[in-house]
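Replying to the earlier thread about multi-chain prediction with a worked example.

Input:
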Amino acid sequence: MRLVLLGAPGSGKGTQAELLTEKYGCAHISTGDLFRHNLKNKTELGLQAEAFMNKGELVPDDLVVRMVSSRLRERNVARGFLMDGFPRTLPQAEAFDEILKELGQPLDGVLLLDIDEDFLVRRLTNRRTCRSCGKIWNLLTLPISVRGCSACGGELYQRGDDAEPVIRNRLKVYRDQTAPLVAWYKNRGILHEHDASGTPEETFRDIRITLEKHDIS
Ligand code: AMP
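Result:
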């Protein structure tokens, strides 16, 4: 399957991508994770992206597109991919189309995760990530006694860009720059909308129904 997960920050793209990857065995390509990995390893790309990320702004299109283009040419995407956090602007979507055309791998669909903004702020300010295994948790649903990662015992931390003022900015950036992609993909008849305000399992069930209905596997 070749899918894009589209939705505001905190709509659950990462969590759905994990569930889909587990079930269908395709590559999960998160541009946010790729940037964080580069940042941690202090690569040239990481240093170029850092200032934008810290302010909750988008990294320039050419840097993102180059990174995605090289990731899509790696061998482990042969069984398909799930794009998480890309494309985020119209120029990125156009460049993505060109890359996929060149690779002869058209998109099967775009899954939109739909959710109310106030709810998102609450969800994002409570989001924690495990420093060891990268699993995403939420204090709203995590038992209060659990301090570490339930999967590996690792330390949980809050991403710097999950602080409230940065979140508000990231949501504005989403509204201004990414939301136009909804109409763009809708016009092409490949957009599938899902309510993402329920539990991850509920959203995942809806997504699976969509995939089965459209024969995407
Ligand atoms: P995410 O984990 O997807 O929320 O991404 C974290 C940050 O990485 C974003 O706020 C941006 O600064 C940067 N980023 C990730 N993906 C993209 C993209 N497709 N275009 C521009 N910047 C991105």
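The pocket of adenosine monophosphate is lined by residues 9, 31-32, 35, 52-53, 56-59, 64, 85-86, 88, 92, 161, 170 (CB under 6 Å).

Feel free to reuse this layout for your own posts.
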